[in-house]
Amino acid sequence: MLKNILSSGFTFKKEEYELKTKYVLLNNLIIILAISLTTAGLFRLLTDNYIQAMIDFSAIFIGSFLIFLLRKMKKGNYKVVAYIMVFSSASLILVSYYISNGVININTWFIALIIPIFFILGYKIALFMAFIFMFMIAMLNLNYMPTDTVNQLFGYVPLFLSIIFLHIYEYRFYQFTQILRDINNNLEKKVKEKTLERTNVLEEQKNILDYQAHHDVLTSLPNRTKFQKVIKKMMNYAQSNDDNLSILFIDLDHFKNINDSYGHDIGDKVLQITADRILNCIRKEDTLARFGGDEFVVLINNYHDKSDIEVIAGNIIACISKPLEIDTMTMFVSCSIGISIYDETIRTYTDLIKYADTAMYKAKENGRNRYKFYASNMTELAFEKVLMETSMRFALDKEEFIVYYQPQVDGKTKSIVGMEALVRWNHPKMGLISPETFIPLAEETGLILALDQWVMYTGMRQMKSWYEMGVSPGKLSLNISARQLQQEDFLEVIKRMLVETECKAKWIELEITESHIIENVLDVIETLHHIKALGISIAIDDFGTGYSSLSYLKKLPVDKLKIDQSFIKDIPDNKEDAAITNAMIAIAESLNLQVIAEGVETLKQQKYLLEHNCNLIQGYLYYMPMSSKKMEKILKKVKER
Ligand code: C2E
Ligand code: MG
Ligand code: MG
Q: Which of 15, 115, 265, 501 is found 20 to 30 A from 626 (Cα to Cα)?
């Protein structure tokens, strides 16, 4: 309640305590003055000075009014009240001066006059005026009551004391607020410093997180997310500035083999080196990103024409295929690159990336270690591929596959010594589809396992039936995917098939493509030995295309080499092919292996092969691949002869 009165009912903010003190002081003083003057009034009554008593009693009303006014006026307008106080005190001093016939005997009212002056004009002026008043009163009173003047002067002591106290109070308060302000400023400074420090740390953390979200940990290259942002921006720029923009989608060839054979640490190093090599082939302003795994993507803009891109792609291929020296090991990797070029038909950046990806797959299909530009028919082909893949899954159940047989002939005696089982797909809409088209797809999807086994089973049953008939089909060569050899149960599968079809092991030969063996030599070697132990012979298909060291030949339980048709095609005219063919025949001889030439179409080729001791021949010169019915007729004819 008292607090409420002293602060005039206002609530002051922290920074307003100077003002608050003014209010508290003023209210305090008004109350003290009112009480003092009322007490003085009581004394006047005792001395029968009634008029002066009335004047003194008025202090209680004036004081209450002033306090009331302070509460009612707007916060901060206390000086108006001080003016009223000056005015009312001065008026009452004058009134009492006249009624007491020019004697001034009213010290307290002077205090009530000087104090508001202190609030209005400050300490120094109030003190100065107090002196003026004192002398003025002394001079006036001297005329009437000279003896009492000294007493009068002592009566003013409270006046000075109150002003000095007020000043001290105000000064102390000033100091106090100064200290508070300093503390406050210090605190504020510290808070600001801390906040800044915090903000910096947060900013740093944000940057780190941002970096991690947009970069690949292994190579520190931008990742897919970051790349998408860049490409979006660049596509907009290219659109409005008619700039060239191109994407190179780079994928390492057979990177899985590196991981599988050397381990992931080496694989990681290969990726890091690859990233550096690509960076060396592109300009600073081009963007290289890693999309994950062995996929890298380069964004190139602001180039002159397509030939610039060809040069860059060629350089990247050349750089990547340089030998890699890691931990005293030397290894080789190559890459395939798909390229898409931005034009107005491409609407989204995802399309641009997708096209480069499609082109990259085409580059792989075309033999890897090359680049390929995207062409619109690639998407159609990819679409066809998807269609084919789906229908292939049902083709086995629907019995759409058929096995053709192509005889293998002893060139000297012209007799059939064996035959190769070659699968075909009799598609209800597309007709007879060549294995060249669907085998790679079957390899990709894993369907090759079931398909090969079906061909094997069909071929074995056929052999049993022919042998039962009394004709001589010789040995049946069955093409199998290297994936088949990696299946744990493959040996069991063969054994079961032999039992079920009653086909003899010696009637069968398995053909494995050279490149497949080399890629997986460690995985397949044991299985091959087991197969061989069953009595089944083993041939290496497409021999000469694997670009490999021949040392593996000694380790593998191989019986026969099939010289790839690409070498046969141009012999004897092409001297190099002829030399290679001779070399392959020599290798077979020295390792005590049989050798057969495939794809023999002309008498010239046949003659050359026979002259060079390659007697076994498979090719259109003798027989095309044919259905089992046709094959059976031929076998029967041969028997009759
Ligand atoms: P491959 O095992 O090297 O088979 C030889 C290919 O050469 C066959 O092609 C055959 O038709 C063809 N050919 C035979 N003689 C001549 C000739 O004188 N001139 C020419 N230009 N070509 C000749 P096809 O039947 O198209 O088979 C292609 C490939 O598909 C095969 O090559 C083999 O790798 C694969 N393949 C076929 N059937 C199967 C199978 O059942 N399983 C697996 N995994 N692969 C198979
Ligand atoms: Mg073959
Ligand atoms: Mg072949």
A: 501
